[in-house]
Amino acid sequence: MEGMTDTSTAAPAEGETPAPQNSGTASLTSNRSTTPGSDVFREFISSGWADRPRLTPEPREVAPLAAARRARIAAQFPGERLVLPAGQAKVRSNDTDHLYRPHSAFSHLTGWGSDAVAGSVLVIEADGEATLYFRATAGRDSSEFYANPAIGEFWTGPRPSLEDVSLDLGIATRPLEDLAAVIEACGAATRIVRDADPLLTDDVDGIRLLEGEEGGEEHGDPAERDAELVRALSELRLVKEPWEAEQLRLAVEATRRGFDDVIADLPHVVSHPRGERLVEGTFNRRARIEGNATGYETIAASGPHACILHWTRNDGPVAAGDLILIDAGVELDTLYTADITRTLPVSGRFTEVQRRVYEAVREAADAAFAVVRPGIRFREVHAAAMEVIARKTAEWGFLPVSAEESLDPDLQYHRRYMVHGTSHHLGLDVHDCAQARREFYHDGIVEAGMTFTIEPGLYFQPDDLTVPEEYRGIGVRIEDDILVTADGAENLSAGIPRTADEVEAWLAR
């Protein structure tokens, strides 16, 4: 990284408040600083700048939706202060950070996506009024903009003004330094998203403890109250708005182009000893072109690696004759992500056994899709897929009992070859709504507007002696993104080839 071996924070000018540091950058780099700190330099670098044009943005399309979401969550906790941090940048190593991404609950209630300012905090007051606290752009008369490698403009780019963000998001804004007084006023009737910003959570816990709230009869344990807020925020996202469904369509379409890129690059991939890395890199390039990043670490699993469900090392070859399982999704700048898996024959055509396994998985996926409609239990989607998986593995002689017997909850022999679930909700998180209560998730009633995956698979480990040798090392998963409609369901990823014949034609193109 350019200059990161030579960074520091210069001493603030007289009367100037030193800017807070992220990740301890100043202390980590002070022993190797060459940043000029003289008054002459400070005066020179603070002058000679053109006036910046003022932005007067129209509120972004999601702004009124985010306002309605804030009203809904406030109504669930009347008379209480809700604190939703965006979170700080996460350290990758020493003084370098991962690509910043705000907490999903914060993004959902503000509409701020990949352009969010790290460390921001949304506060919904007891009367339902919401204020966004963030560190606005620093003046050129401060030392921050050139001398603070964590947040200075020379290092990380300009930040927007309070007015610009207020107009953009349709929400009241205040400087981040004003948040301290709000936190000091936190009492029993305060809830915070605990995992978003642990240091801020510690501050809130300390105030609540001093106020004698922990274990109080009226309000109960603060940690459990915070958990109730997180559950409510997850359940708020179970049913998507039409705007959210459109974001997922766009993410799926970008993901389709990413798969096309990989297929176009297959000759190069096959020729490289780390072909899986090339697949990962090719897809990730598309994600950065069309969105913020990938929604999760890309799985590029060739040959027996396809039997490792979360294979993300991606350091193996992609060999002719093998299958490659690619599980990948583009995350847009709005932070909505696709989650698609396709399993491709590297040579362009499936062998007889590979096709048999592949089409069995597709039949399971189709069976699951066929039951999706409003009013069913979410768990019925998985059950429909498992009926096919049990039947196929029984037909092939892999089970010690019949398919019907294996489906008994106390047996489940067929699950040896598919230990994961068939579906999970999808949206801002690849595993969206993960903190929702079981009665609203696994046992919940499916509603129009819900979006989730259908992703059955079959995985025959290379050393599994319960299957014939020709099956060993074959792993297949087919994953699609589903939108529940008023009378059924829409497969958002149906345009990405699915059947064995379609996949072979796709590769031939």
Key traits:
single chain; 509 residues; Creatine Amidinohydrolase, Chain A, domain 1; Creatine Amidinohydrolase; five-stranded mixed sheet; three-stranded antiparallel sheet
Please outline what is shown here.
The chain is an alpha+beta fold and 509 residues long.
Number of discrete domains: 2
Q: Tell me the name of the CATH class of the largest domain.
A: Alpha Beta
Low-confidence stretches: 1-23
User: What profile does the largest beta sheet have?
Assistant: 5 strands, mixed
Question: How many individual helices?
Answer: 17
- For CATH, the homologous superfamily of the largest domain is named as Creatinase/methionine aminopeptidase superfamily
- Radius of gyration, rounded? 26 Å
Shape: globular
What is the name of the CATH topology of the largest domain?
Creatine Amidinohydrolase
User: Which structural class fits the helix and strand makeup?
Assistant: alpha+beta
Distance between the termini: 40 Å
* Proportion of residues in β-strands: 5-15%
Helix content: 25-40%
CATH architecture of the largest domain: Alpha-Beta Complex
Strand order of the largest sheet: 6-5-4-1-7
Mean of pLDDT: 92
Number of strands: 17
Give your account of this protein's structure.
The chain starts with 24 loop residues before the first helix and ends with a helix. The protein has helices spanning 25-29, 39-45, 63-76, 104-110, 144-147, 153-156, 162-169, 179-184, 198-210, 222-236, 242-264, 266-271, 275-290, 352-371, 379-395, 403-406, 500-508; strands at 81-85, 91-93, 96-97, 121-124, 130-134, 172-175, 190-192, 293-294, 299-302, 323-328, 330-331, 340-345, 451-454, 457-459, 475-477, 480-484, 489-491. Helix 11 (242-264) runs antiparallel to helix 13 (275-290) and helix 14 runs antiparallel to helix 15 (379-395). The protein is globular and about 80 Å long. It is an alpha+beta fold. Strand 16 (480-484) and strand 17 form a beta hairpin. The chain has two domains: 63-137 and 161-236, Creatine Amidinohydrolase, Chain A, domain 1, CATH 3.40.350.10; 242-508, Alpha-Beta Complex (Creatine Amidinohydrolase), CATH 3.90.230. Helices cover 35% and strands 13% of the residues. The strands form six sheets. Strands 6-5-4-1-7 form a five-stranded mixed sheet, sandwiched between helices.
